[in-house]
């Protein structure tokens, strides 16, 4: 399984310096990495996760406390969910699970947006841990089958709206700017966001590296010929997918060059390993 996965990654990366166009090669690389390590890209499905049985009770709640060290971020629990959502403010909530890889990578994005909007009195950025909080009358179990779920509750009491498509930083900021009904200082938010961006990228990168270190295929890859370069290339790419609209392929050239120079060694390693 791991050997075939690595062959797909290698095949995708080979196109970068070959005859095929750079655009095609990069697309191939993304598809290959996505196929081999799909958990890195996909939203978490509670139904497909064999390690987690998610059958929420009709009602469960944590205590109502804010989160020290997370400026601007509101801790939504079942006991205060309706109170917050029905307030005369624009409320943006991420429903997450600690067992969800995609949620873990998205957490720095929520902290980023919360900090950037902390001085905007009519915007609320909140998170709810659905493993320990659930109110079926507030959000249904069916809605929580794919996580993270980001939902906007309008200040005018209108219909809630979900964030569609990619859950990354640019899309989350756009979601806030597009939907917020009450006036706020957009320029101040954008300035705060730009200043915080390097730190947010570091946080996302740290999460990606942690998740890779916990994956057996990545552990095997790291000790293979050119493995460290391949890991770094994937870390850069995955970090950029969450933090920006521009994908970072800067680590792939070195990785590709090393792999082309060590094709036989790589083949021999994986044949012996598996």
Blueprint of the fold:
Elements: H1 2-14, H2 22-36, E1 44-45, E2 59-60, E3 73-75, H3 81-85, E4 90-96, H4 101-116, E5 123-129, E6 134-135, E7 146-147, E8 149-153, E9 161-162, H5 169-179, H6 186-213, H7 216-222, H8 227-243, H9 252-261, H10 263-273
Parallel strand pairs: 3-5, 4-5
Antiparallel strand pairs: 1-7, 2-6, 4-8, 8-9
Helix pairs in contact: 1-2, 4-6, 6-8, 7-8, 8-9
User: Multimeric state of these chains?
Assistant: single chain
Helix content: 40-55%
Sheet/helix structural class: alpha/beta
Q: How far from one another are the termini?
A: 8 Å
How would you describe the overall organization of this protein?
The chain has 274 residues and is of the alpha/beta class. It is built from ten helices and nine strands. Strands 3-5-4-8-9 form a five-stranded mixed sheet, with helices on one face. Strands 1-7 form a two-stranded antiparallel sheet. The radius of gyration is 21 Å and the shape is elongated. The relative contact order is 0.15. Mean pLDDT is 81; it is low at 1-39 and 44-52.
């Amino acid at each position: 399984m791991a050997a075939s996965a690595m062959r797909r990654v290698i095949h995708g990366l080979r196109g970068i310096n070959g005859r095929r166009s750079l655009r095609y090669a990069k697309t191939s690389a993304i598809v290959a990495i996505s196929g081999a390590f799909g958990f890195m890209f996909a939203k978490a499905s509670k139904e497909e996760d064999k390690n987690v049985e998610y059958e929420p009770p009709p009602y469960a709640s944590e205590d109502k406390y804010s989160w020290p060290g997370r400026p601007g971020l509101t801790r939504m629990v079942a006991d205060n969910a309706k109170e917050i959502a029905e307030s005369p403010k624009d409320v943006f909530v991420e429903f997450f699970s600690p067992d969800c890889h995609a949620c873990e990578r998205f957490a720095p994005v929520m902290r980023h947006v919360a900090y950037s909007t902390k001085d905007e009195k009519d915007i609320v950025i909140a998170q709810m841990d659905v493993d320990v909080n659930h109110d079926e009358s507030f959000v249904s179990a069916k809605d929580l089958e794919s996580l993270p779920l980001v939902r906007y509750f309008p200040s005018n009491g209108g219909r809630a709206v979900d964030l569609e498509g990619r859950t990354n930083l640019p899309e989350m900021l756009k979601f806030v700017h597009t939907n917020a009904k009450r006036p706020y200082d957009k320029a101040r938010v954008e300035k705060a966001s730009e200043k915080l961006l390097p730190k947010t990228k570091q946080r996302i990168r740290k999460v990606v590296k942690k998740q890779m270190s916990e994956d057996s295929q990545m552990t095997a890859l790291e000790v293979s010929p050119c493995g460290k370069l391949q890991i770094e290339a994937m870390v850069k790419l995955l970090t950029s997918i969450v933090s920006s609209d521009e994908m970072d392929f800067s680590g792939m050239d070195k990785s590709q060059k090393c792999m082309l120079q060590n094709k036989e060694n790589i083949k021999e390693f994986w044949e012996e390993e598996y």
